[in-house]
Design a protein that fits this description.
The chain is of the alpha/beta class. The chain has a single domain, classed as 3-Layer(aba) Sandwich (Rossmann fold), CATH 3.40.50. The chain contains 11 helices and 10 strands. Strands 1, 2, 3, 4, 5, 6, 7, 8, 9 and 10 form a 10-stranded mixed sheet that branches. Helix 2 packs across helix 3 and helix 5 packs across helix 6.
Length: 337
């Protein structure tokens, strides 16, 4: 991991205003053949020391690492080190050429680069590239193997990354989408309508405020609508598995001992796990590993962060050798994940 070479707006020739709000994490690059991942890291406060707990966050379609700033800050105050990646086609992550330079037109790459298994393989390599955490404060014990939290498309990426050998001690799936091909095509159309590639950042801020975003979510969402690749969003929405239930069942058979938890939005409020699938997940994982959030939709982390953090704290409290990661006093309102 190296400090990011992109201090301002990541678009070619772009630059963010000096007074623009930004994430509290430290931005770094993870350079791999063919791609340069951008990542944010939130670390425990200076002098507090790490207790070895590590969480990797993978966002959903049209999301970015910046959208997880509040969650990263809160967990870092509890002793966690949190890494959030900008996934391919999103944020500041860029496809690169043979010389390691960003491909001039990110829309010129083939849509097959966004195939779920391929992205999972890249993410597995990126996670293995993350620098190790320091030993736990006051001990010589090595840090714990990371937990991985994947939201929406990021949940599918996490599943494929684990197949590709990503180190993981616990997997948390936040409202993974179980969609038909027709629903995927409809979603692709909605993405095409909401993205604004090439828009000026200040204009994007004004637009998302008009759309109802407030507070810190404005910045994350404004960056998302101008930085997300329309090619990526469309390919991802249309490229999901035709039978995600069968895919998940086969994956579980390959990883029977990995602790897996699902945090599910309410289907009546926009959650993307239908009730019959929720019943199957309870049978496959055990009722105590499926956590429903009544009244909240596909992005509980943004819709009611306080409630989301309470549930996440309970789940992460089961991480090996650690107590509950309770995070009091959270402020609702977070960019799409």
């Amino acid at each position: 991991m190296t400090p990011s070479s992109d201090a301002g707006d990541p678009r070619p020739g772009g630059a963010s205003p000096q007074n623009a709000p930004g994430p509290s994490g430290t931005r770094h690059d993870l350079v791999l053949p063919g791609i340069r991942f951008s990542a944010l890291r939130w670390s425990p406060p200076a002098g507090a020391g790490s207790d070895g707990r590590h969480l990797v966050i993978l966002h959903g379609v049209t999301g970015n690492a910046m959208a997880w700033d509040g969650v990263g800050m809160a967990l870092a105050r509890q002793g966690w080190t949190v890494d959030a990646l900008d996934l391919p086609g999103h944020g500041r992550t860029r496809w690169t050429d043979g010389d390691g330079l960003p491909v001039p037109d990110q829309e010129s790459v083939g849509a097959e680069r966004y195939e779920l298994r391929h992205v999972g393989e890249l993410v597995a390599r990126a996670i293995r590239t993350l620098p190790p955490l320091p030993p736990r404060a006051g001990t010589t014990s090595p840090p714990a193997t990371p937990a991985i939290l994947g939201h929406s498309w990021g949940a599918g990426v996490a599943v494929m990354a684990i197949d590709a050998g990503a180190p993981v001690a616990r997997l948390v799936l936040l409202d993974p989408p179980f969609m038909t091909p027709a629903q995927g095509a409809e979603m692709a159309s909605s993405f095409a309508a909401e993205l604004r590639p090439g828009m000026d950042l200040e204009a994007a801020r004004a637009l998302v405020r008009e759309q109802g975003e407030t507070g810190e979510s404005v910045e994350a969402r404004a960056h998302a609508i101008i930085e997300t690749s329309p090619l990526a969003a469309g390919a991802i929405a249309r490229g999901g598995p035709r039978n995600p239930v069968e895919v998940m069942a086969a994956w579980r058979a390959r990883h029977p001992d990995l602790p897996v938890d699902v945090i599910a939005g309410d289907p009546s409020s926009g959650g993307m796990i239908p009730p019959p699938v929720l019943r199957l997940l309870r049978m496959a994982l055990g009722p105590s590993h499926v956590h429903e959030m009544p009244g909240l939709g596909h992005s509980p982390n943004r819709e009611d962060r306080e409630r989301f953090m309470q549930v996440l704290g309970e789940v992460l409290g089961q991480h090996p050798g650690q107590g509950p990661a309770q995070v009091p006093g959270q402020v609702p309102g977070q960019g799409r994940g």
